[in-house]
Write a structure and sequence with these properties.
Two copies of one chain form a homodimer.
Chain A: H1 12-31, H2 41-48, H3 62-85, H4 91-108, H5 110-122, H6 125-147, H7 157-180, H8 184-206
Helix pairs in contact in A: 1-2, 3-4, 3-5, 3-6, 4-5, 4-7, 4-8, 5-6, 5-7, 6-7, 7-8
Chain A binds a DNA duplex (30 and 30 nucleotides) through helix 1 and helix 2.
DNA sequence: AGACTGAGAGTACAGACGTTCACTGAATCG
DNA sequence: CGATTCAGTGAACGTCTGTACTCTCAGTCT
């Protein structure tokens, strides 16, 4: 069974997984310049250091690879929701915290957030579809999170959906701005603006019921 | 000078302009499937019905063509602001009106709004840059519009920018949703949601000063 | 130890790509 | 009317694309 492996050498499955990861990472990297639709199988193969045909041992097509990247990227996005909901749900400090959490995750998984923003509107059809579906799920997830916050129990579910949609939209927009930010000082500006934006939205939402 | 032209025939400049338009329209149409980066010069030429090399008589590259499309598209976007600001600036009916105006313009210039949404994040570098710059200008334009509304005179200019940015972001998101909407009944839903969203944001903004 | 499996190599092909160049012929100009 | 201009033609180029095949040979299983 397990032949003792030399320290530098890897088992067959490990080697395969290693190449697979390299392909995924390379494709993610190359797509950052424009979109996954502009990435060719041969480009990826060359960058990874394998022959073009070897690509097929791992993925049936660039599009299939893209669907995998969608899953990975949304793990990163959901992690934001998870970390936001971790601390006590006091609304005051939740705002500042949320923006920081988002910024940290964007910093750590820059490529994933960029991928979502791009491929949502300009990816291969199947990938675009997958991203949109995932975003809808995230919107729902956020809606149930909000519903758990004291003071929002009586909200209409439609209003809840509108609010969570608005928050996800501006969350993606903020992530996009953070990715684009060249210098660290800009990052601080964007975070401040995002905080103000989020406060405005929540002030609106809290005064919402009285509107009718 | 002007030789009498047969009814069906056109002058030389008219012919050239006609081809030029066909190229622009075709490129806009083809890019709708993914992004302008995935559109080739030869594809466009074939669709228009000219030989590939004739393309160069009109544009130096697909990228240059794209910059032209950016200008055209933002004429369509600015038209929304113009039509929104036309009626009296009473805040109540401004909300309902704005969403309708946006929906009408998106319906009429579907391709332009889609182009902006896509190429902003996934176009050729120069095109992306141009779109972003134009969006920033539109944000500023909207900010000065808002500043003219009674009751917002005392706002900090930073807050004004944050609000207008938020509004443009959700405006683009709404346009995107409207374009994607397959059936007309969905359009009504999206418009309702956009109205609620806009109201929420404005309720927030109006109660903003008291926050400090 | 011998058989088997499968990731990757290598070769090959047909088609699409951007770009070059010399050309044609109808509209325009003097 | 003769000279000029220029949008569109057509052939040719070198490069890149996805995909089909056969082959190799190290890691694995029995």
């Amino acid at each position: 069974m397990a032949t003792a492996l030399g320290e530098g050498s890897l088992s067959r499955v490990e080697r395969k997984e290693r190449t697979r990861r390299a392909i995924l990472d390379t494709a993610l990297d190359l797509s950052a310049d424009t979109s996954l639709v502009a990435v060719s199988l041969r480009q990826v193969a060359k960058e990874v250091g394998i022959v073009p045909t070897a690509f097929y041992r791992h993925f049936a097509s660039i599009e299939a690879l893209g669907l995998e990247l969608v899953d990975e990227s949304f793990v990163s996005l959901r992690a934001v929701l998870r970390d936001v909901r971790r601390p006590d749900p006091s609304l005051k400090q939740l705002i500042d915290g949320s923006v920081d959490v988002l910024a940290e995750h964007v910093e750590a998984r820059r490529a994933h957030f960029g991928f979502i923003a791009r491929e949502r509107v300009a990816g291969p059809p199947a990938v675009r579809e997958a991203v949109r579906h995932q975003i809808e799920l995230v919107e729902r997830e956020l809606a149930t999170d909000i519903a758990r916050i004291p003071g929002t129990e009586a909200w209409a579910s439609d209003d809840l959906r509108v609010l969570s949609r608005l928050m996800v939209t501006s969350m993606v927009a903020t992530a996009e701005a953070l990715i684009l930010a060249a210098r660290p000082e800009m990052t601080q500006d964007i975070k401040d603006q995002a905080r103000t934006q989020l406060r405005m939205v929540l002030v609106g939402a809290l005064n919402w019921k009285s509107q009718g």
